[in-house]
Amino acid sequence: MKRSEQACLVTGLLAEEFPKAECELDYESPWQLLVATVLSAQCTDQRVNQVTPELFRRWPGPHELAEAPVVEVEEVVRPTGFFRNKARWLAATAAVISDDHGGQVPSDPEVLVELPGVGRKTANVVLGEAFEIAAGIAVDTHVKRVARRLGLTAESDPLKIEAELEALLPREDWIGFSMRTILHGRRVCIARKPRCESCCLEPVCAKVGV
User: Fold this and answer.
1) Average pLDDT for runs of 10 along the chain of length 210
2) Is 3-21+137-204 a domain of CATH 1.10.1670.10?
3) CA 19, CA 187: separation in Å to the nearest integer?
4) Which helix (H) or strand (E) holds 49?
5) Model pTM?
6) Backbone angles phi, psi at 141, to 5 degrees
7) Mapping DSSP to helix (H, G, I), strand (E, B) and coil, where does residue 43 land?
8) How far apart are CA 93 and CA 108, in angstroms?
9) Residue 105 φ then ψ, to 5°
């Protein structure tokens, strides 16, 4: 089976398994999603969802966060890990969005990835979820693991994995594939002991490294 055919089968099976796949971060605006996604690095969505209500209560938007004392932001985001870097990135990004973009998260992929702490994965998540723009496939640790186990890629670098996956799938499938593969990686194709016996992708999986 060609990898392009396999990728299309995977997309269809995941769509059946997760018909309403959505980001599990709680947010009410593109700004809140951007903040939550930055905080989610090396942290669970559940933990981020416990932190963001207080963060947004104290500093509702980019202007308020840009003016906030960084040490206070650090204390609020501390439970998410790497809190000093995350607080510094958020403060810097808030200042840029407030000063240069009228307080609105830019929907231009090239502009978005230039913000402090915002890589391609974060940009792809925000653009796909908040703006419904299929700028790219978001490759986090779950997408990387699932794609490699399926045999869709042998790469380890997220940028190379993203490029390979995007070459296999039509652009209209990128957003759904990202979200559904993340959910599948969290719930079924877990790192230490994948649940192959209950996996919807088992018939088309190469089981690389399993």
Assistant:
1) 93 94 92 97 94 98 97 97 96 97 95 93 95 95 96 95 97 96 95 94 94
2) yes
3) 15
4) helix 45-58
5) 0.92
6) -65, -30
7) coil
8) 15
9) -65, 125
Q: How many helices (H) and strands (E) does the chain have?
A: 11, 0
Map out the domains of the chain as residue ranges: 3-21+137-204, 30-131
Residue with tokens 């009410």: 28
Give the residue numbers annotated as catalytic, written as ranges: 121, 140
State how far the Cα of 13 lies from the Cα of 188, in Å rounded to an integer: 13
Report which of 170, 150, 167 is spatially closest to residue 159, judged by C-alpha positions.
Answer: 167
The count of residues in the chain is 210
Say whether domain 30-131 belongs to CATH 1.10.340.30: yes
Contact (Cβ atoms closer than 8 angstroms) between residue 125 and residue 37: yes
Encoded tokens for 3: 């990898």
Interatomic CA distance for residues 161 and 148, integer angstroms = 9
| Distance of alpha carbon 27 from alpha carbon 51, whole angstroms | 12
On whether the CB atoms of residues 142 and 188 are closer than 8 A, the answer is no
